[in-house]
Amino acid sequence: MRVIDSHTEGEPTRVIVEGGPPLGDGPLADRRARFAEAFDRYRSFAVNEPRGTDALVGALLVPPQDPACAAGVIFFNNVGYLGMCGHGAIGVAVTLAHLGRIGPGTHRLETPVGVVQVELAAGNEVTIENVASFRHRAAVSVEVPGLGRVVGDVAWGGNWFFCVHETPVALAMANVPELTRQAEAVMAALRAQGITGRDGAPIDHIEFYGPPSRPGIDSRNFVLCPGGAYDRSPCGTGTSAKVACLAAAGKLAPGQPWVQESIVGSTFTARYRLAADGAVIPSITGRAFVTGEATLLRHPDDPFGDGMPPAR
Ligand code: PYC
Fold first, then answer.
1. Strands 71-76 and 57-62
2. DSSP state, residue 7
3. Which of 148, 241, 225, 239 is nearest to 180 (CA)?
4. Are residue 141 and residue 127 in the same domain, yes or no?
5. Is position 69 annotated as part of the catalytic site?
6. 86, 132, 159, 303: most buried, per Cβ within 10 A?
7. Per-residue pLDDT tens for 59-91?
8. Is 225 annotated in the active site?
9. Ligand 1 mean position to 188 CA, how many Å?
10. Residues of the domain holding 108
11. Is 268 exposed, middle or buried (0-12, 13-18, 19+ CB in 10 A)?
């Protein structure tokens, strides 16, 4: 399997450019389902130890259905599959440019949850225009054992998020283990109390918000991804969910910038335009850098040839 690695504002992406599973054609959501049902070992092979790490997001390039798209892409991680991935789409754009498959300008990527636009600018900067994002439920209270009442919004930004209004723990790198524990407790409480996204969709990302570390930034976050890793970037789909919540609350005007800082101090700049039915189309700007090109190998006698499940 041939892969190209990059990071987007600190969060790694591994793009499979050759040797991925034979998923056939059809809608990307169907191909993602086929990937999960019949070829999940490719996912684990590509991103789990011993070749990868829990924070790594994989991106399988596939032929798009829509000929107007530069590529189709299915995102996945250490435990499963994502709808969209904002940092990953920025990484894919820079990777396609590295391969000479796209140049500066505007392009489209097809994902299982819709088409996103990517605009490649100088200096490895990419702006993605994400799928329509919206706040599903506002100010939802959840009783979290050991934490008490936690209040947040349920929002869609290409994945389902619970956006906790105020972080229960200071947003500092030294607190990452504690932030992870608390976010996992919130996730478990949402499941136990039947709090979901639209049509019962499980919420699989938790975001905590707090004050930024420096002037010129609007907010700092900590994002727990499914699989237990935290996002080193401010999370593209999470920032989309956040601006959808701010728009719904009348706290951010269309076109107004929102600078979201991650737990590691990197930033995305977000804006939105209005879409139908109270949803918004967020755009997210960040930078990605290619960090490596590799051929991943599998020895037939290797007991961990298909990768190891994460310790959970
Ligand atoms: O940037 O959307 C994102 C993302 C989702 C999971 C990790 N990063």
1. antiparallel
2. E
3. 225
4. no
5. no
6. 86
7. 999 999 999 999 999 999 999 999 999 999 999
8. no
9. 20
10. 2-131+291-295
11. buried
Residue 123 in domain: yes
List the Cα angle 204/210/211 in 5-degree steps: 150
Q: Looking at the CA of residue 234, tell me the nearest atom of ligand 1.
A: 1
Distance between CA atoms of 31 and 13, rounded to whole angstroms?
A: 20
The rounded mean pLDDT for the chain is 97
**Whole-Å CA distances, 247 to 148, 238, 240, 283, 285:** 28, 14, 10, 13, 18
Question: pTM of the prediction?
Answer: 0.97
82 in a domain, yes or no?
yes
CA distances from 3 to 51, 58, 162, 195, 291 (A): 11, 9, 32, 38, 11
- Structural domain includes residue 302: no
DSSP state letters, 69-98: SSEEEEEE-SSSB-S--HHHHHHHHHHHHH
